[in-house]
């Protein structure tokens, strides 16, 4: 179907202009509202407007259902966290046949969550008890060993004491206690008491043992010493392996400690200090028999707890596997219901409270599909009343929608990154498909490097189905999205590389022998003179004989610089021509007569003329100095050109072109503001009921600068005049600066060629000329890394960014407004790609 603009009939082009949009209203019965929104979401061609914007989220009709969906989404996130911890991943197989009711799912998710929380709580309790028993067993074993050594030492001292003090009585015990450490005195007192049987002099010492984090052990010891004024004995033994702390569940390096003290006051102080330092205390028996019995009992309880914990983990994993099998299906259903109810909240309730009213944008080609979806929703929901579909008239600017595929979408994204095109203005994305990779290739011309880029692009394109279903990293995701851009850039790079005759900077005689040969045998190795033309001109690209000559760089510089100017002027002319098609499409004759025509005259009177001189010089082989011609065209237009004259009548032609360029500046500046003022005055004086020919939304946008086509501000002549002045100055200065900006094509092409030449001659050839195999291998490796890292990565990125700038600034500013907004339809198909 052809698209009819205001004042012209344009042939159909899917991407040249955005799809024709229409604002529609749908009146939906309450009983079929949910199914209707669901079917429209499956279709994905309707953008809803928020008709309840004045209401808060809690005042909307379906706030309760949204809250339920949010709670189920929270439960699913809870399940996913536990599946991630357990190393499980949700099953990708979604059972489309299973019809799950949202109410049943809500009950099931609640039960599963309660069961999982209970299992986690029980598991934590069991694990804590298990870790405490492990610590207890460690304390029992360490303390038992400590007391065994202490008792052995005490027995040795008793025998020594009996041998040396056979004539002394129990009255010497206090002196002994003063000269012996407390912990040893505790044992020796008991021994001496048994010997003397003097219970009236019995001294009773207490002790406590446990574990403390190693990092706190020094401070713990100092605080104990100060609190008891040194009236204690502390012994610490470092545990070799980290211990799982029962409270935190993390592995911590700890020390086993035993503290001996005397008196209740010291005991209370020690217990409080242990609590404040997070030390875990455990009971310990005095008798050896009870100690062995305690170790045996603790070991048995550890074994029982281990069996119980393993059984609980198996049940826990089995439950998570059941959840994982249906997780994706549940998650998709919850996302879908949440999106549907969020959309339902955007609808307004009819006064009868029996219907919902929806408004939104849709493409005109989708009218039949939307009506079919409404009929199916009515039938499937057994509604007695069908939905009503009607088209509305609106002054609001419609959204912009382009139908793209996997090839064109990346190019459209390049344009959209600059700005979304205004509704049905000319889309630069159509031309970007060719011009973007071509300008890139002009700067990256080397068919060897182009082949490498082609292989990289094929590595992304061939397995694209595999990559499409995976989540890639940010950089790889961006590269994969632009795989067809890379493909086109590589193909154009091969083409321009053949023109430049460079394969990793090496020229080849692919299209026949060189047109030049030596005059005689004496010039066989000459690179500066002695070459004469003996054949026809090299049929395609640069003659390989230029490589290595003294005039190679001046020749290539001249060629690429002039080529850059020709390409730049051609692309800028294309941009101005597209502004003409925009003006004709929107019926804006003011832009045709007072923008397009003077801009074309100004640009081509100067730089179009320069392009013609370049082509004439190439065709005639003239030695004329183009710099001199262009400079003195402004400084001395009436002077004789002399040897710089390229064709008859050049001097009067230059004068005419110069006058046209000067006339074009006020032509752009003055008429349009005054004509706009005149049209505005006529409209408000009632002399014309309809806008005059040449006034439309685009003109009013220029007057008011409103977004989305809204109009309401008063006409300000001074503002319009200043705006036109800025626009004129910008174009005049931009014509010069933009043309100079295209010289980056020459600069980057030269840099790429010279870098490639340096890597080839100074790395590869230099190392290959040596007789050492290792040096040759190192040279090949260095050349490969330099080529990939610098020329294939950094230079590719550099040329890409420069080509991007040339399109955004030099090309698109000639016609592209980019002040539209994107068509964002309600679609359930994109829910699979969302993480939230």
TrEMBL record:
<feature type="transmembrane region" description="Helical">
    <location>
        <begin position="593"/>
        <end position="616"/>
    </location>
</feature>
<comment type="similarity">
    <text>Belongs to the V-ATPase 116 kDa subunit family.</text>
</comment>
<keyword id="KW-0406">Ion transport</keyword>
<protein>
    <recommendedName>
        <fullName>V-type proton ATPase subunit a</fullName>
    </recommendedName>
</protein>
<feature type="transmembrane region" description="Helical">
    <location>
        <begin position="653"/>
        <end position="670"/>
    </location>
</feature>
<dbReference type="InterPro" id="IPR026028">
    <property type="entry name" value="V-type_ATPase_116kDa_su_euka"/>
</dbReference>
<dbReference type="GO" id="GO:0046961">
    <property type="term" value="F:proton-transporting ATPase activity, rotational mechanism"/>
</dbReference>
<comment type="function">
    <text>Essential component of the vacuolar proton pump (V-ATPase), a multimeric enzyme that catalyzes the translocation of protons across the membranes. Required for assembly and activity of the V-ATPase.</text>
</comment>
<feature type="transmembrane region" description="Helical">
    <location>
        <begin position="773"/>
        <end position="794"/>
    </location>
</feature>
<dbReference type="GO" id="GO:0000220">
    <property type="term" value="C:vacuolar proton-transporting V-type ATPase, V0 domain"/>
</dbReference>
<keyword id="KW-0813">Transport</keyword>
<keyword id="KW-0175">Coiled coil</keyword>
<dbReference type="Pfam" id="PF01496">
    <property type="entry name" value="V_ATPase_I"/>
</dbReference>
<feature type="coiled-coil region">
    <location>
        <begin position="95"/>
        <end position="129"/>
    </location>
</feature>
<dbReference type="GO" id="GO:0007035">
    <property type="term" value="P:vacuolar acidification"/>
</dbReference>
<dbReference type="GO" id="GO:0051117">
    <property type="term" value="F:ATPase binding"/>
</dbReference>
<keyword id="KW-0375">Hydrogen ion transport</keyword>
<feature type="transmembrane region" description="Helical">
    <location>
        <begin position="563"/>
        <end position="581"/>
    </location>
</feature>
<keyword id="KW-0812">Transmembrane</keyword>
<keyword id="KW-1133">Transmembrane helix</keyword>
<feature type="transmembrane region" description="Helical">
    <location>
        <begin position="438"/>
        <end position="463"/>
    </location>
</feature>
<feature type="transmembrane region" description="Helical">
    <location>
        <begin position="484"/>
        <end position="501"/>
    </location>
</feature>
<dbReference type="InterPro" id="IPR002490">
    <property type="entry name" value="V-ATPase_116kDa_su"/>
</dbReference>
<keyword id="KW-0472">Membrane</keyword>
